[in-house]
Amino acid sequence: MCPAPPACPEPKYRGPLHCLATVAREEGLRGLYKGSSALLLRDGHSFATYFLSYAVLCEWLSPAGHSRPDVLGVLVAGGCAGVLAWAVATPMDVIKSRLQADGQGQRRYRGLLHCMVTSVREEGPRVLFKGLVLNCCRAFPVNMVVFVAYEAVLRLTRGLLT
């Protein structure tokens, strides 16, 4: 006879508001901002990479005599921009996630730099790129659609304003 599988533990949070209240109660206001320094470091340069690479790729993919690429060019530029942004963002995203998941009380990491150094020392530099392939597989199609919609809204609003 096979033993019964172990019962699934109850989830810690019953929803987003319960999560917010529990973290605030157990860790204080500061607990709500765990990982925010890594988030700021992640988003600053990744958004710069995102929009700059999109603009440059659009310029390269624009047919001669046109200021904007066609829909296929926008799809390619948007997808590539998303992938490049995540390639730049992933190291800080890994650190952000580790800081956010670090428990209260017996904390493993003292801060952003300690988390980064400890992670690289224990797992090697490749740890900073965990999830990159999956992020890129998601980023390419998502950002294709984002930028096609963005360009469509730009064209629509330009038509309304002129």
UniProtKB/TrEMBL annotation:
List the InterPro entries hit by this protein, alphabetically.
Answer: MCP_dom_sf, MCP_transmembrane, Mitochondrial_Carrier
Question: Where in the cell does this protein reside?
Answer: Mitochondrion inner membrane
Q: Which UniProt keywords apply?
A: Membrane, Mitochondrion, Mitochondrion inner membrane, Repeat, Transmembrane, Transmembrane helix, Transport
How this chain sits in the membrane, per its record, is:
Multi-pass membrane protein
Q: Does this entry carry the keyword Translocase?
A: no
What GO terms fall under cellular component here? mitochondrial inner membrane
Please, which domain of life does this record's source organism belong to? Eukaryota
Q: Transport: is it a keyword of this entry?
A: yes
Identify the main location: mitochondrion
- Name of the protein: SLC25A47 isoform 2
